[in-house]
Write a structure and sequence with these properties.
Number of strands: 37
Number of helices: 6
Mean pLDDT: 83
Radius of gyration: 26 Å
Largest sheet: 5 strands, antiparallel
Length: 532
């Protein structure tokens, strides 16, 4: 019986109405008429048979009351959202509140308890409150910082396990305590004098500049502490959907639930490492620009203004810079923007050939990019701080991808996919078949890549292999267009469909490589990204 709940992607505690609603949704998603590719049609037909069988079985059991008996025998399965809470940079006296949600996708639970990873935690968890009135699950908890015992000028990590009748899920936490500075002390008489001076100064400014004062107010608000800004939920997806002929940025959970319009018109979204900002592309296609917005959809900032088209913004791992491509096809160059200093640190790549692919080193200090010149391509390494540019691969290669630990780099060549060490030596071949766009999983144990092996002309499939090239498997769904590993979990998202058609409907899938991929959303741009 538990198999049927899994087919319909509902918890074993789901009501008859919840099961019926999910059934209708899945029938719409997997209707064979929505798929053009014959392979996808066959899969959709088989999937629809499983869905109908599961719904009929559960409906019968619910009507007879047999499911309740089984549910009581099922163990609870706690699920946390988000899995990671980053409080950002705080002062030791700050008390900041964040929230996390606990759900249960298993059998009924009697108690929810917290098991702390350390005896004297730097946070406190408050009482829970139901998310939906009348339903005990899911529950929302507030968590408050208490940093007065933490060492300043350091990053502190912690964790807490959420225990449901012995079944646990872990919430990871991080905070950076700012360097303490001596406080200024004023006598009452001096404080009164300073206050009077400020009143007189504001009066003079008002009389002299009149309506200019509101601009001063907006400038102060714009530069307020970003750590209090709204943060994107961790391990969620970012994608774009066509609405009234405009691309709109959305975020959702990996199961497709809670799809939220972020109020941003554009495409190619990329979340900053702290989850507080989003870089994306917007404007006319032939003169598109890079924008940065906070996660709440306010404080919009345009960072490029030249008439060249832009694409593929990617944040550096420390969140201080954004790299992107600029220029028309076959003429693109790599550009790097310093977000805090608001200036560009571009590599001298104009004479190297046009760039197509790039990847930040895990420490954020350097970036690798390929340069196509004639019929060859080579990979270069660039340090924005000192403007140092070096040749990384002296042979024909492209598609550089750093391993998460910074020890290896995967590259593509005409002979297959290879890895090298961080110095560009110790060459090891992983594939002999035609493959490209390698990317490492968050733990560095696997590499996903595209290949046209076993595919029809003009299409590509998504493959996954071990870090040494072993155990190569092809993922379901033909005609893959893009993919992205989660930076904090073993989830792999990828896009399928035909992007050559106008107003194409593409399909965003997610898999943990253990079960069949599940459909997250219908989208209209192949560019996708994860939040940390």
């Amino acid at each position: 019986m538990k198999k049927y709940y899994g087919v319909l992607e509902v918890p074993v505690t789901a009501t008859h109405e919840e099961i019926r609603s999910q059934y209708k949704q899945l029938v719409r998603i997997y209707h064979p008429d929505r798929f053009l590719n014959p392979i996808d049609k066959v899969y959709a037909e088989e999937k629809l048979k499983e869905i109908n069988e599961a719904y009929n079985a559960l409906s019968t059991k619910l009507e007879t009351g047999a499911v309740e008996a089984e549910s009581t025998r099922s163990v609870p399965r706690p699920v946390i959202d988000p899995l990671w809470l980053d409080f950002g940079g705080l002062n030791s006296t700050d008390k900041v509140v964040r929230s996390f949600q606990v759900d249960n996708l298993g059998g009924p639970a009697k108690t929810i308890e917290f098991v702390y990873g350390e005896d004297q935690a730097w946070f406190q968890i408050g009482n829970g409150r139901p998310v939906t009135e009348g339903k005990p699950i899911p529950v929302m908890f507030d968590i408050t910082t208490d940093l007065h015992k933490l060492a300043p000028a350091q990053t502190h990590h912690a964790w807490v396990d959420i225990d449901m009748d012995g079944m646990r899920a872990r919430l990871n936490l991080m905070v950076r305590v700012n360097k303490s500075s001596p406080a200024l002390r004023f006598s009452p008489r001096l404080a009164l004098g300073i206050g009077l001076c400020l009143v007189i100064l504001l009066a003079v400014l008002f009389l002299q500049f009149g309506g200019s004062l509101p601009m001063l107010s907006r400038a102060i608000n714009f530069s307020s502490n970003p750590t209090i800004a709204k943060r994107l939920q961790a391990d969620h997806l970012l994608f774009t959907v066509d609405q009234d002929s405009h691309q709109v940025v959305y975020t959702s959970q990996v199961d497709g639930a809670n799809q939220i319009d972020l109020g941003l018109t554009g495409w190619s979204p990329a979340a900053s490492p702290d989850g507080q900002q989003i870089a994306y592309v917007a404007g006319e296609a032939q003169a598109s620009q890079i924008f940065v917005s906070d996660a709440a959809g306010g404080h919009l900032h345009q960072i490029t203004k030249d008439p060249q088209p832009k694409s593929t913004p990617i944040w550096s791992p420390n969140g201080s810079m954004i790299a992107f491509l600029a220029g028309p096809d076959s003429q693109t160059i790599l550009r790097i923007f310093d977000v805090q200093n608001e200036q560009f640190y571009d590599p001298p790549n104009a004479n190297l050939g046009f760039a197509k692919n790039f990847d930040w080193a895990p420490d954020g200090k350097t970036i690798l990019f390929d340069a196509y010149l004639g019929n060859t391509s080579q990979i270069y390494q660039f340090n924005p701080d000192n403007q140092d540019l070096q040749l990384f691969t002296p042979f024909d290669s492209w598609d550089p991808a750093w391993s998460p630990d910074g020890q290896r780099v995967a590259v593509t060549s005409r002979e297959g996919i290879f890895t090298l060490n961080s110095h560009g030596s110790d060459l090891q071949q992983l594939t002999k078949n035609h493959g490209w766009s390698p990317a490492w999983s968050f733990d560095g144990q696997q590499i996903a890549f595209f290949s046209d092996k076993n595919s029809t002309a003009g299409t590509s499939n998504l493959w996954v292999m071990d870090q040494d090239g072993g155990h190569q498997i092809q993922l379901p769904r033909a005609n893959s267009l893009n993919f992205a590993w989660s930076p904090i979990s073993k989830q792999l998202a990828y896009v399928t469909g035909n992007a050559k058609k106008q107003a194409s409907i593409l399909y965003l899938w997610v898999t943990d490589l253990k079960d069949q991929p599940h459909l997250v959303a219908e989208i209209n741009q192949a560019t996708i990204a994860w939040t940390r």
